[in-house]
Amino acid sequence: MSALRLTGAALGRLMREDKLSFLGLVILVLLILVGLLGPWLPLGDPTRIAAGPRLGPPSWAFPFGTDELGRSYLPRVVEGIRATFLLSIVAVSITAVIGSFFGMLAGYFRGMTDHLVARGADILFAFPAIIVGLLVAALMGPGQISAVAVISIATIPLFIRVVRSVTLSVAGRGFVTASEVAGATPWRVMIVHILPNIIGAVIVQLTYAMSIGMIIESTLSYLGLGVQPPQASLGSLLREGSAYLTIAPWLVLSAGIVLSLAIMSVNLVGDAIRDAIEPLKGRALS
To answer: What pTM does this model have?
Structure first.
């Protein structure tokens, strides 16, 4: 816990000094708040048909314009933010638990355990996310559960590789050896001694996996394999708007800009966390 408090203090200091990372944090917090509070904000009903003219341009009444059914696009984009963030967070959280567990197993026990886990991660890593999405959608059908499954499968190898590498370096330190000599069980060593020393790397990887998860979710929804109508995600809104790109480009621009801001903000926050944990390896502060 003391290491986490030190990391938190370093992160706060870095945010104050690094204006770009601070901007990313502000954008990320605003997007999450807007997505969570969207149903209670006075934005309108995202499913109300003929709320305005079909394919109407942005105006005071409809800041993001209207779609082909006359639905206000602003509440639909807010709904898309909530869906994209929620699915990515759920999937990456599941991945973090599973990937960290197997990564610690491989890094601590080594030998055959390390070989099996590493080869399994390599096999998963060899499959492109789109191919996995097609296979999962064929087995489970398109939808949110399929999107979560695909994101988890695609990001688990990344967690396993990172956690395994960090565990290998921590497992050889003196305090781990002293704990083993004192008779601590392998599970106690991993939970009490190794896990607190790798949690920083897990958090950094979590942020990067979050951005990857949003890209995968948006891609799946764009292809019709993720969130299904009438619900919206940023990817499905891009798919719907692409059909009217020449006559209503604001549909694609609004969803695309919001998605880009979300991914950029997550990556900037991830860079700040990395720099706080490894200041000598981080990028120069602006």
So the answer is: 0.85
